[in-house]
Amino acid sequence: MNNENKIYKPNFKCFESYQQASDFVGKIIVDLVNQKPNAVLGLATGDTPLGVYSFLVKAYEKKEVSFKNVKTFNLDEYVELKSIYKDQSYAFFMSHNLFSKVDINLKNTFFPNKSEDKLDLNKKDYSEYDKEIEKTKLDFQILGIGQNGHIGFNEPGTSLESKTRLVPLTDSTIKANSRFFASENDVPKYAVTMGIQTILANSKQIVLLAFGKNKKEALKALVNNKSFNKDWPCTALLLHPNVTIVCDKEANPL
Ligand code: F6R
């Protein structure tokens, strides 16, 4: 992939608290959008970026930033979410935590599929999403990390060449996500996710956020590996020249 897989050292920023870390990242995004009002942001869902989104909402309310011309691409979305769980879709999450609270134009917000799409194991082509991303590039990509080192829903075993595609979720991810559902059985078993290549090849800057002791092992893998290790998809970030890992003291692997 890039430059014969040259390895880079990610920047590390560890904070005392989730709040301080979230404010740090929120401020970087506000500064970016003020410098480039039509910035393109790659966004994640889950608990991790909530503090960043709340910083962005507050900055918007204080009239410190406008998202009017910002474009966003979310990393992933469930497939075949039962209708009673509509509010667990990642599109709903984004609307609830950010989009409905700022002046972003919803026409400029993109997801790799619709959560209620019927599971179609024969549908192999999600290249439209990659094409859109390749066209605009991502000025700033926020990533969370799974306990198993996944980024997006690129689970262990994912190749560096992976692009946006349908993926089965691993048992550990289903277990982790079951906290939002009445039972593990209700958690969708599939999602569409940007691939590792989609992320690495198109992001100008990547910030990986990791909070809490459950994320420490995955961060350790990222720090201790010297090259891409398929067992820990997060190690793909070693191949990108502009990555910052932002963590709290519980997740600090150093
Ligand atoms: C979500 C995503 C996932 C999460 C990861 C951590 O869009 O891409 O990789 O970032 O599963 O989830 P939380 O933040 O809930 O611990």
- Uncertain stretches: none
* Ligands and ions found: fructose -6-phosphate
Oligomer: single chain
- Structural class computed from helices and strand pairing: alpha/beta
Strand content: 15-25%
* Number of continuous helical runs: 7
Alpha-carbon Rg, integer: 17 Å
Order of neighbouring strands in the sheet with most strands: 1-10-9-6-2-3-5
Total E-strand runs: 10
Helix content: 25-40%
Distance between the termini: 29 Å
Mean pLDDT across residues: 95
For the biggest sheet, the summary is: 7 strands, parallel
Give helix and strand order, one letter per element, not per position: EHEHEEHEHEEHEHEHE
- Principal-axis shape: globular
Brief sketch in words of this structure:
The protein has 254 residues and is α/β, with parallel strands linked by helices. Helices cover 28% and strands 16% of the residues. Helix 1 crosses helix 2 (50-61).
Describe, in plain words, how this protein is organized in 3D.
By secondary structure, this protein is of the alpha/beta class. The protein is built from 7 helices and 10 strands. The protein has helices at residues 18-35, 50-61, 90-97, 127-136, 171-177, 196-202, 216-224, and strands at 11-15, 40-43, 71-74, 76-78, 109-110, 140-143, 165-168, 190-193, 206-210, 243-248. The strands form 2 sheets. Strands 1-10-9-6-2-3-5 form a 7-stranded parallel sheet, with helices on both faces. Strands 4-8-7 form a 3-stranded antiparallel sheet, with no helix packed on it. The mean pLDDT is 95.
